[in-house]
């Protein structure tokens, strides 16, 4: 017969649950303290803690949650964590979980799950939920249609405010959002939107047509989700109507889904700018082997391209033998040029992403980056001449200063223009960002350095 828990033991367990992380408690098998930890933390904290765990520990921790919090936590978990949990569920519990998810969240989850698990999820849905999910899965991956919610409260212009509010109360429980209420005509074509706050503050006798905002921002279901999310940010709307080719309402892109789209896009851009592929799942839960695999391909390619630097140095071997001091400044020159290129590339990739710069601005960007590169090069070049005088004579110091001026100009132009050229060619600008720009500037910077040295020193 188990012994009753004393006050001292309970206090010790509570202290330990507060002091240790959820992962440590589960690994040590202290499930009582882990359950107390879960009860004392918010949903977002629990999600972060479970995402940091391996599949086995994540499932064990998830099983300790009560049903209401389990649904909330499951919706926000990484796909790898959701898959691990679904694989251990059976019967009615499995059906209840997948049926409780919002259609848009479920469709995105299915797009990332293995085919076997995805098929099992679809089979566990009710006919109505299965039909909604199948509709969303019919849109292209990463499109607005995949991220929209079809569960919305729709109004007609002729309704009174009292009737509209009654409709919201009647159908709002099944909708994902009621803050923005689309208004449609008899053909379900979007005519405008009404904010719930406007209805609540208006006279009951007024009509929806008195309050409707006509020609609101909207997006086609087949357009990229990232473009839709950026449009929401630019137009400062909470929810964005999603329509078909004939302007018929299909659903809404909500602000939380838009935030997720932006976060995913920026995560992917950051990985590419660092010369790596994006990994799936939480960083702390990803294996070291998987992290290495996401970085290895780019590093091998960059290593191959970097061999051009060795080729350039070998081609000017005679110049190096005549003036050995030239070799002292190679790291300074290529390092500075690479940094200038990286700064320009990062700025332009970001400006492209948020719509501040367009491919049609190529000429203006060229002038701005050229001026910026020359300004930086002039200042850094003077500093380099001063440093060069400390180590060598005036002749080599001037070579270094002039070379640095030209290399900064080169770095700013290559870094600033490559994202715009990539966009015009239909290539993701992040792919030609920091690592590629740095490598190109390194190679061409060496060529500039040795050509300037050959001309100024008569080599």
TrEMBL record:
One of its GO terms (molecular function) is magnesium ion transmembrane transporter activity. InterPro entries: CBS_dom (IPR000644), CBS_dom_sf (IPR046342), Mg_transptr_MgtE_intracell_dom (IPR006668), MgtE_N_sf (IPR038076), MgtE_transporter (IPR006669), SLC41_membr_dom (IPR006667), SLC41_membr_dom_sf (IPR036739). The lineage of its organism: Bacteria, Bacillati, Actinomycetota, Actinomycetes, Micrococcales. Keywords: CBS domain, Cell membrane, Magnesium, Membrane, Metal-binding, Transmembrane, Transmembrane helix, Transport. Residues 148-211, 212-268 form the CBS domain. It is found in: Cell membrane; Membrane. Belongs to the SLC41A transporter family. GO terms for cellular component: plasma membrane. The keyword Glycoprotein does not apply. The keyword Lipid biosynthesis does not apply. Homodimer. Acts as a magnesium transporter. The chain crosses the membrane at residues 296-316, 322-340, 370-391, 397-418, 430-452. It is a multi-pass membrane protein. This is Magnesium transporter MgtE.
């Amino acid at each position: 017969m188990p012994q009753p828990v004393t006050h001292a033991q309970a206090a010790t367990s509570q202290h330990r649950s507060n002091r240790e992380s959820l992962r440590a408690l589960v690994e040590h098998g202290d499930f009582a303290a882990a359950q107390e930890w879960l009860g004392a933390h918010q949903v977002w904290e629990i999600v972060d803690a479970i995402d940091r765990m391996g599949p086995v520990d994540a499932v064990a921790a998830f099983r300790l949650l009560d049903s209401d919090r389990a649904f909330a936590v499951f919706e926000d978990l990484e796909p790898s964590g959701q898959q691990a949990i679904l694989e251990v569920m059976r019967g009615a519990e499995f059906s209840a979980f997948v049926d409780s998810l919002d259609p848009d969240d479920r469709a995105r989850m299915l797009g990332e799950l293995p085919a076997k698990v995805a098929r099992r999820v679809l089979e566990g849905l009710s006919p109505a939920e299965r039909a909604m999910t199948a509709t969303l899965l019919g849109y292209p991956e990463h499109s607005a249609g995949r991220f929209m919610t079809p569960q919305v409260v729709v109004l007609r212009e002729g309704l009174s405010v009292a009737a509209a509010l009654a409709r919201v109360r009647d159908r709002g429980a099944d909708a994902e959002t009621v803050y923005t209420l689309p208004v449609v005509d008899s053909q379900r074509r979007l005519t405008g939107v009404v904010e719930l706050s406007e209805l609540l503050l208006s006279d009951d006798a007024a009509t929806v047509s008195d309050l409707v905002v006509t020609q609101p921002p909207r997006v086609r279901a087949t357009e990229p989700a990232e473009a839709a999310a950026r449009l929401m940010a630019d137009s400062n709307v909470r929810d964005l109507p999603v329509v078909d080719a004939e302007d018929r309402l299909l659903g809404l892109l909500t602000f939380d889904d838009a935030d997720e789209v932006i976060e995913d896009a920026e995560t992917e851009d950051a990985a590419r700018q660092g010369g790596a592929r994006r990994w799936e799942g939480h960083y702390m839960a990803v294996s070291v082997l998987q992290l290495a695999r996401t970085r290895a391909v780019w590093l091998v390619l960059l290593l191959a391209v970097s061999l051009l630097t060795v080729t350039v140095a070998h081609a000017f071997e005679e110049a190096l033998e005549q003036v050995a001091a030239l070799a002292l400044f190679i790291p300074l020159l290529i390092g500075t040029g690479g940094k200038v290129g990286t700064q320009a590339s990062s700025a332009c990739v970001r400006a492209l992403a948020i719509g501040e710069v367009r491919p049609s601005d190529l000429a203006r960007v060229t002038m701005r980056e050229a001026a910026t590169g020359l300004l930086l090069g002039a200042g850094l070049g003077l500093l380099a001449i001063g440093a060069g005088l400390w180590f060598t004579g005036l002749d080599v110091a001037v070579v270094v200063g002039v070379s640095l001026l030209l290399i900064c100009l080169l770095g700013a132009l290559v870094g600033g223009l490559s994202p715009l050229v990539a966009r015009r060619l239909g290539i993701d600008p992040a792919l030609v960002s920091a690592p590629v720009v740095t490598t190109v500037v390194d190679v061409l910077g060496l060529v500039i350095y040795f050509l300037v040295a050959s001309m100024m020193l008569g080599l």
